[in-house]
Amino acid sequence: MTVHAPTSIADALREMKEVLGDRILLDEEVRSLYRSDFGRMVDRLPGAVARCASAEEVAEVVRFCRERRIPVVPRGQGHTQSGQATTDVGVVLDTAAMQTIHEIDGAGETATVDSGLTWRQLVQATTERGLVPRVLTNNLNVAIGGTLSMAGLGVASFRYGTQADNVDELQVVTGAGEIVTCSREHNRELFDVVRCSLGQFGIITRAKVRLRRAKPRVRKYYLLYDDLGALMEDAKRVMDPSNPTFSSLESWCTPCFQGIKKIGEGMELWEGVQTFAYWMYPLHLTVEHDAGQEPDASLLKERHQCGPPII
Description:
Blueprint: H1 9-20, E1 24-25, H2 28-32, E2 48-51, H3 55-67, E3 72-75, E4 91-94, E5 101-105, E6 110-114, H4 119-126, E7 131-133, H5 144-148, H6 157-160, E8 167-173, E9 179-183, H7 188-194, E10 203-213, E11 217-225, H8 228-239, E12 248-251, E13 254-262, E14 273-289
């Protein structure tokens, strides 16, 4: 590897633009769009933005930055929470323009796509063929490469694991600027470290993700519990691998406000007042079905909800 003589990062970034052209953006107005992420907890102004449209362009930027020791951070839709998708002074490598769907294999139930494609775009393409990705996050407007770098949890994770568990092959640009294809059978170490690694060990540029057959209609069941133990017992039944009935599961806890008690001066919570709440536990379940084969509430006859399901 060639290491260039020390120079200011600003000078190096101007050189990068001369070498790599219009895909390198130095205008402060543009760079300001990348100074934070979804979490809005970190504010950093990058020195440049590289909008790449291919793995080769990503590799070229990485090699340039490596040789000149310039920090580089990959970014899809910027949905990170703590500033992982931005950098101070260095280069934000924007992969959002990489959105090609290379193949949808109906027989093999896989899709090979560029990492900048969003899950929503993939769903729109696969549902036309009666297929969907095995696991989807609640927000579909996030990049496939981004969630594979984070794990990617969804309402079907109880059955299939994370989105990162459901990828068969990756194309990755390494820290050395090399383009490498990896899978469970080839370059396994790279395959394992780039998944769920926040882009620290390589930049995902293409992925072969697993799909599944999907029925055209969905019925949602809404169950409400006032007993956490009953909820957990029913959730275990739903998640039982021998019970394929339900395609998604989502639950949480929510307080039902009951009142306020005065405990001191003022109205500051826990200093002047104390609140009381009754905890409730909603459970959402879905069942996919064909037209004319709608499921009914008998599916829930052995469930122990505190009231009838709202369907």
